[in-house]
Amino acid sequence: MEHDIAVLDIAAGEVGIIKYAPVKRWQDGQSEADTKYKHRLDKIKLERAKHEAKAERLIAAAKEEGRLKDTETPQSPVVTEENEVQGDPSRRWGPLDLENENPPPSAIAFRRDTVSPQELSAQSLLTTSLPYSRMQ
């Protein structure tokens, strides 16, 4: 099959075949980027480790104060067909209730390595420890 654009003139047997030259260029580029940004990557890893340690301290302190129960997660509330919520109406749900869940790694609720999830967890601890009447 002839095409006006030479790049599109590929034999059917060559489609989907991994070629050495493009892979080698990609590997070389990755090596160069790894070398160039090594210091930045190390800094990010250290920063994430600090955030994760801070989140663990927050959770440990909450358990110690009794704000976070160290028991199995209670049953989630259920919404009936009549849009009525069955379950404890004073119960608040937050990111710290995901212990037995498996959200995607990018979900902010389950992350502990940046500031935003820490703030979300702290807010969740505050609201779960307050009775519903004090929240309004």
Explain what you see.
The chain is mostly helical. The chain has one domain. It is built from four helices and two strands, in the order ααββαα. The protein has helices at 20-36, 38-65, 115-129, 132-135, and strands at 78-79, 85-86. The protein has a two-stranded antiparallel sheet with strand order 1-2. Helix 2 runs parallel beside helix 3 (115-129).
Task: Give a summary of the structure in a few sentences.
This protein has 136 residues and is mainly α. It has helices at 20-36, 38-65, 115-129, 132-135; strands at residues 78-79, 85-86.
Give me the secondary-structure topology.
Blueprint: H1 20-36, H2 38-65, E1 78-79, E2 85-86, H3 115-129, H4 132-135
Helix pairs in contact: 2-3
List keywords for this structure.
4 helices; 136 residues; two-stranded antiparallel ribbon; mainly alpha; 47% helix; 3% strand; disordered C terminus
Unreliable runs: 130-136
Gross morphology is: elongated
Structural domains: how many: 1
Number of helices: 4
Structural class comes to: mainly alpha
Number of strands: 2
| Strands in their spatial order, largest beta sheet | 1-2
H/E element sequence: HHEEHH
Estimate percent helicity.
Answer: 40-55%
Task: Give the termini distance in whole angstroms.
Answer: 71 Å
Radius of gyration: 25 Å
Largest sheet: 2 strands, antiparallel
Q: Mean pLDDT, nearest integer?
A: 76
As a percent range, the share of strand residues is: under 5%
